[in-house]
Design goal:
This protein has helices spanning 31-41, 50-53, 87-90, 111-118, 124-130, 135-151, 193-208, 238-247, 342-365, 370-384, and strands spanning 4-9, 15-21, 58-62, 64-65, 68-69, 74-79, 155-163, 166-167, 215-222, 252-257, 275-278, 282-285, 293-294, 297-298, 303-309, 320-322, 329-331. The chain is an alpha+beta fold and 389 residues long. Pathway: Metabolic intermediate biosynthesis; chorismate biosynthesis; chorismate from D-erythrose 4-phosphate and phosphoenolpyruvate: step 7/7.
Length: 389
């Protein structure tokens, strides 16, 4: 049993659609969880004017009846309220008015290469789909995956560890699920209030200088069973699937698993997680440098992944570009934009990790009904003597 996860829609079109297939029948889902995650995606100091227009909610058009999945594909739609201001420019059908083309590609965006690849003279045909607005559909679908994982004892959380030059100091103390109880109340979704204040000030300073700011988020999955994924082939290695999913998020340029970015500088004795055993705990580790992944499989420890996000390419003081209609020097396109979306990117990463892990659970435990999946998981954990933590 495998899953599929597809989105459709443009940034200023009528709306965004997510179709997700492969979740088991009988799973109870709540509309409030989907809408809550959509609202969380809009959080964070440094967001622009679009967030004042959109209040994202999801409409179910297929696959759910009376709060339970029916086993078929689920279709979710998120309307773009801003479409009323763009209806002439983004109407699916021809309009009487003359709509000017956009010829000013932004450095760092998909604009120029996309125009080459898809044979268009209007950059808007590329930038509308390349926009991070698309991630609203991912978060809606990810919320369903999250509810499936919650039913199997898995919880996913995220937080911001760096914005620009301001970073949370390294800590030897591993994070626990309870540490995230109020993370969404912080203006940049940072767990360290002192560092958070510095991050907010850094965003303010850079915004006044007409700059955008990148950073790093961390996403953690608690309660995973060991043995998800496989060492057998490259495409079944879970670390590769996770890295690809997180790196697919707009503006993410790097993914680290566990202590990944720090491991090359360490000797082997400080790079791995020693294995211990006791009658009370069974097999266990005292460190989690691997980030809960060894040989392409989960170890049962919390799964940790970090994503490095570049500054957004739409600047209030545009960079130099070229008008593709005249090939003359020009300033890049300037549209309404955010200064910093690292806090929101963490929420999107939760959705992407939720899909990859839900797919891994379906792959390993199958089951047409949620009770079948639970029973298979219980049987497996009993066979290997694993107590969920």
């Amino acid at each position: 049993m495998t899953m599929s996860f597809t989105t459709a829609g443009e940034s200023h079109g009528p709306g965004l659609t997510c179709i997700i297939e492969g979740l088991p029948a009988g799973l109870e889902v709540e509309r409030e969880v989907i809408d809550r995650d959509l609202a969380r995606r809009q959080l964070g100091h440094g967001r622009g004017g679009r967030m004042k227009i959109e209040t994202d909610t999801a409409t179910v058009t297929a696959g759910i009846r009376h709060g339970r999945l029916m086993g078929g594909p689920v279709a979710l739609q998120v309307a773009n309220r801003d479409y009323e201001n763009w209806e002439e420019r983004m109407n699916p059908w021809p309009v009487e008015a003359e709509v000017p083309e956009v010829h000013l590609p932004r450095p760092g965006h998909a604009d120029l290469v996309g125009a080459w690849k898809y044979g268009t003279t209007d950059v808007r045909n590329v930038l509308e789909r390349a926009s991070a607005r698309e991630t609203a559909a991912r978060v809606a679908g990810g919320a369903l995956c999250r509810q499936f994982l919650e039913a199997l004892g898995v919880s996913i959380r995220s937080h911001v560890v760096r914005i620009g030059t301001v970073a949370v100091p390294p800590s030897e103390k591993p994070l626990e699920l309870a540490d995230f109880d109020s993370v969404d109340e912080d203006p940049v979704r940072c767990l360290d209030s002192d560092v958070s204040a510095e991050m907010v000030e850094h965003i303010n300073v850079q915004r006044k200088a007409n700059e955008s700011i990148g950073g790093t988020f961390e996403v953690i999955a608690f309660g995973l069973a060991p043995g998800l994924g496989s060492h057998i082939s490259w495409e079944t290695r879970l670390d590769g699937r996770i890295a690809g999913a997180i790196c697919s998020i707009q503006a993410v340029k790097g993914v680290s698993l566990g202590d990944g970015w720090d491991l090359p500088a360490r000797p082997g004795s400080q790079a791995h997680d020693e294995i211990f055993y006791s009658e009370e705990r069974g097999y266990y580790r005292e460190t989690n440098r691997s980030g809960g992944l060894e040989g392409g499989m989960t170890t049962g420890e919390p799964l940790l992944a970090q994503g490095a996000m570049k500054p957004l390419p739409t600047l209030t003081k545009p960079l130099q570009s070229v008008d593709i209609s005249t090939r003359e020097p020009a300033e890049a396109l300037r549209e309404r934009t955010d200064s910093c979306t690292v806090p929101a990117a963490g929420v999107v990463a939760e959705a992407m990790l939720a899909f990859v892990l839900a797919d891994a659970y379906r792959e390993k435990f199958g089951g047409d009904h949620i009770d079948d999946a639970r029973a298979a998981l219980t049987s497996y954990c009993g066979r290997i003597g694993w107590n969920q933590r």
